[in-house]
Amino acid sequence: MFGFVIFSLVSGAQPPVTAVMHERYALLTEARDRIIAGDLAGARDAGQQLAGIEEISGIPGGWEQWLDPLRIEARALGRARDLSSAAAGVGRIAGVCADCHGATQGGPGLEGARDVPPQSWSEGQNMSLHRWATDWMWLGLLAADEGAWRRGAGELDRKPLTFRFGGASPPAWRPQIEQTVYVIAAAALDAPEARRGELMGQLIATCAECHTARTGASRGP
Ligand code: HEC
Ligand code: HEC
Asked: Which of 204, 220, 197, 221 is nearest to 84 (CA)?
């Protein structure tokens, strides 16, 4: 559902480590999007696939300190009982990815993100702002990049939709949940790296909460 293309997904001449990383990225991002959309079964399925990724041979022995918790968390995501624990699990997994990227100087590069268009609001397009900001935070978290993280959090911290949601929403929706998004964004702006995964989990749980609060939840992402 998200439009970020941060690296080429063309396979072929890729080194195996890169190919496995792309697979992880695709599956974890799928889990995140399923949660945002309120789809627990879809998130679990992505978690199971993430846990099942076969590690390539010849990786440095020291990597187990990240790969073991990654697998354990992915398995737990595959069995998550509700959306909020699945969301917390995705946040913890993303935190493990970020830890290893920070330690190995690896991780997604931000070159591709230069093409991401600036966000803007237009009539009837409320959610593209949320999507845009969440994508920047996601990239900032995974790549352990301060600037990208703060860019996304800063956009939400400006409370872009308070008034637009105000009075306009049918009563079945719960516009007040939007406030929680802003509270989390404010905390995210100053959060140390070690807390970012947890905050990402809280953020996507909040998106899910509002999307599933709507009656006849067919119009979500
Ligand atoms: C054990 C360490 C480690 C863990 C854990 C890890 N990565 Fe990586 N990652 C790396 C290294 C090292 C690179 C750079 C090497 C490469 O791209 O060939 C990398 C590169 C990447 C890239 C960029 C690939 C490219 O096109 O250059 C992405 C995307 C990525 N990782 C996503 C993830 C995601 C998502 C997770 C967690 C689910 C994760 N990684 C977990 C070490 C790790
Ligand atoms: C206050 C309630 C509320 C919150 C909080 C909320 N949403 Fe939404 N979302 C909606 C409603 C209502 C719709 C369907 C109508 C619409 O698109 O405006 C929707 C639809 C969407 C869509 C599909 C429509 C589109 O424009 O593509 C996406 C994507 C989306 N939301 C992303 C998010 C993300 C990401 C978050 C969390 C950062 C979030 N939303 C938080 C109420 C909310």
From this structure: 204
